[in-house]
Amino acid sequence: MKTETIILASAILLTGLMAGIFFTWSNAVKPGIGKLSDLEYLRSLQSMNRVILNKAFIGIFLGAIIAVALVPIFHFKIAPNSIFWLLLLALVTYWIGVFGVTVFGNIPLNEILDKINLESITLEEIKALRTSIEVKWNNLNLIRSISSGITFLLLIVSSLFLNK
Length: 164
Known about the structure:
The structure is a single chain. The protein is mostly helical. The chain has one domain (3-162). It contains 5 helices and no strands. The two termini are 16 Å apart. The model has no long low-confidence stretch (mean pLDDT 95).
């Protein structure tokens, strides 16, 4: 099997996994914990944000970023012009909509929450903290869900035309 095919298949698999993770957070995890009290919500989000930083998640997250970047590089000379632009669009969509939003949006919110000892603040401070994080975090995750889904589809469509 050719290197460019392996890279494209890897990018499809990894972006698909990431799209699934973001979709699940948007459609099950966050609505589920959204029904909890302010303190329970913040405890749950704090715990999940700590647990998700494991080797499997980090490997898939970083692997997708790298694979998506390598796809257009390895297909530059062999892909038809229109397909190359789809691959480049997939790269830009993923790097801005997933990587950029995560690094500059979700992670800073996670870090704010992680630094706070929830047992040492008042109920008013807990409510204010939830208010300052919840909607922003959910909206940013929706952007990641849509961007990773679009990237996944662009890579699949590109692969169909590349393998003709």
